[in-house]
Amino acid sequence: MGTSRRSRSRARRILAAALLVSLSAALPGQVASGRVNTPNQPRPNVIVIVTDDQEYRTLSAMPTVSSRLVGQGIRFSNFYVVNPTCCPSRASILTGNYAHTTGVYSNTTGFQQFNDSSTVATALDAAGYDTALVGKYLNGYSGTYVPPGWDHWVGKTSGGGVYFNYHLSIDGHLHHYGSKPRDYVTDVLSREAVSFVRGATDPFLLYFAPNAPHTPAISAPRYKGRFAHLHRFRPPSYDERDVSDKPKWIQRRPLLTKRKEHVIDTFRRKQYRSLLPVDDGVKSLLDVLEASGRLDDTMIVFTSDNGFLWGQHRLEGKAVPYEESIRVPFVIRYGALGTDPRTVSQLALNIDIAPTLAELAGVVSYDAEGRSLVPLLARSPPSSWRTDFLVEHRRHQTMPAYCELHTTSRVFVLYADGEKEFYNLDRDPYERENIAPHVDTSPYRHRLSELCNPPPPGMPRP
Fold first, then answer.
1. How far apart are CA 336 and CA 442, in angstroms?
2. Eight-class DSSP state of 312
3. CA-CA 20 to 30 A from 39: which of 92, 141, 213, 311?
């Protein structure tokens, strides 16, 4: 903390340059919030893979991701989204900003509200990158519109089927796909992604966003029957019996019936199964990079737009402030950093992705609320890093709007109706005991007042 701004800025330039010239070990050091410009340095190709509704512990179901990304890359064990709903999260990934800045708080109007004039795509495209989006863009996208910054566009439109009988907008022209095995959407998108990489001019950015494992989580016919014997998922918070300490919106939820348990278990197996074609797509991308000699020059980022609950706290789905909803998988593989597997435990967020890519691309002064993860890619990461962050969400069904302060080990949630939750993750990682009535939460409320500004729609400022 005592390091001067000048020395921190110099350390950041050294570190970024070290990555950009493909050194296997980046330099340690304190870093500042400035941006660098290294136009004469080689810049990495980038592939960002964003799945849909993937629970953060499911990477083991994906053999290629497990062996060639996690097994040869950097896994972030505490990676979170700042709004656990599809469209707001994707807007944050594309910009590096919170929903209170992008204006995208919901799925229903997200595409119409999103300002696409300033994104990581426009920044990297202006910096000379060959850019492509293949897959899901934002909820509500339809028609033939191609947003600025994308040189090649394969956007899945809203409406129609999720995995079969759907439309793709390919460079401004609609194409219909039917119900035959060759029309399975993940496979079609994977072929489009591989085609782009094969013909792309370096440096390139590929944003690859398959629908899986989003409901209805249909897998390719070739994987019929896989995970039929997947073990039952029954963590301590599953179908939580005593919710008297929880907010009223949880207390009003009934215990899970046997039928509901069966529905959740069945859907969980389907989600696992639907991830296998995504894994095949990752393998195809890695293989084409390796065949063209570009694998070590390409940074591959794997993550999801939000997590998912399978019965914890009597809930199924996302949007809620609990760990399973806001925590997502995040892995980076980049040959310049070496291929020995490592784990980063510092708090990292989906709003950090865009500024990270901008810095590695040599973009000057990329404006974002997130911060570049470049310092954490060093083998000796900085001792000083963020210790807390904000999660925000508007009203969802029966759940009031909320703002959440999440630290390295504490969770404080304040709802629009004034109810509170507080958890000590060190002692209670499954968030079973709300101790808000028994501790002094005023320091957390004060910090939340600083971060939750402006608050989500329908919520007063803390």
1. 45
2. B
3. 92
Q: Can you tell me the mean pLDDT for 281-310?
A: 98
87 catalytic, yes or no?
Answer: no
Q: What is the pLDDT of residues 120-178, one digit of tens each?
A: 999 999 999 999 999 999 999 998 999 999 999 999 999 899 999 999 999 999 999 99
What CATH number belongs to 390-451?
Answer: 3.30.1120
pLDDT of residue 3: 38
pLDDT mean across residues, the chain = 92
Q: Annotated catalytic residue: which of 86, 87, 403, 452?
A: 86
- Cβ atoms of 100 and 94 closer than 8 Å: no
DSSP string covering 49-115, please? EEESS--TT-GGG-HHIIIIIGGGSEEESSEE-SS-SHHHHHHHHHHS--HHHH----SSSHHHH--
Please list, in sequence order, all residues whose beta carbon lies within 8 angstroms of the beta carbon of residue 65, skipping any fewer than 6 positions away.
Answer: 59, 279, 282, 302, 331
Beta-strand relationship, 204-209 and 45-51? parallel
**Strand 204-209 with 316-317, pairing:** unpaired
How many CB atoms sit inside 10 A of residue 258's CB? 7
Radius of gyration of the chain (CA): 21
Token pair belonging to 129: 């990158």
Average pLDDT over residues 352-363: 97
d(CA 278, CA 280): 5
Q: Report pTM.
A: 0.92
- The CATH 3.30.1120 portion of the chain extends over 390-451
* Residue intervals in the chain for CATH 3.40.720.10: 36-384
For 73-114, the pLDDT digits (tens) are 999 999 999 999 999 999 999 999 999 999 999 998 889 999
Q: How far apart are CA 99 and CA 402, in angstroms?
A: 13
CATH architecture of 36-384: 3-Layer(aba) Sandwich (3.40)
